[in-house]
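Suppose you are handed only two things: the residues of a chain and a line of SMILES describing fe (ii) ion. What would the bound structure be? This form records exactly that question and the answer produced for it, so the two can be stored side by side and reused later without any lookup.

QUESTION INPUTS
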Amino acid sequence: MAELFEWDDDYNVGVSDIDEQHLELVALINQLHRAIRDHKASKQVRNTLDELIEYTRTHFAIEERLMRESNYPEYETHRGYHEALIDQIHVLREKLDSGEASITFELLHFLRMWLIRHILDVDKHFGAYFIANGTRPEWMVEAHAAMTNRRWWQFWKARA
Ligand SMILES: [Fe+2]
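ANSWER OUTPUT
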């Protein structure tokens, strides 16, 4: 069966570390979609959602650090978009916990469209800036390994 979220080469921002993390985000959204579609137990669905939330937070933190270190002039605006999504997700998680909401296809489509628009509208802009003005930092070696092996929680703890 077709996946909810198919990657398109147009989504590449040109910075391989960021592109590979976006691919993992797509894989996690698809994993959540499959869990809902196949009526997996709510605990499993919830765990997948938590994984997606943690991965997203860590990915945002990495992007924002790259922005700060490369003196990206639109850092504050971009960070604002990340924070707005995280706030929305926290509200959703509370609703899930209280039984007021469930994870629906509508939500999955919202996440998919948010990510596509965010990549095309603002991440690409930063990608072009970073290619021209930034260099891959030393800490990215560790971050990249953590993010592509889905061991980001260890990375997150190490930076706390
Ligand atoms: Fe971003």
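WHAT STANDS OUT: The mean pLDDT is 90. DSSP finds six helices and no strands in the chain.
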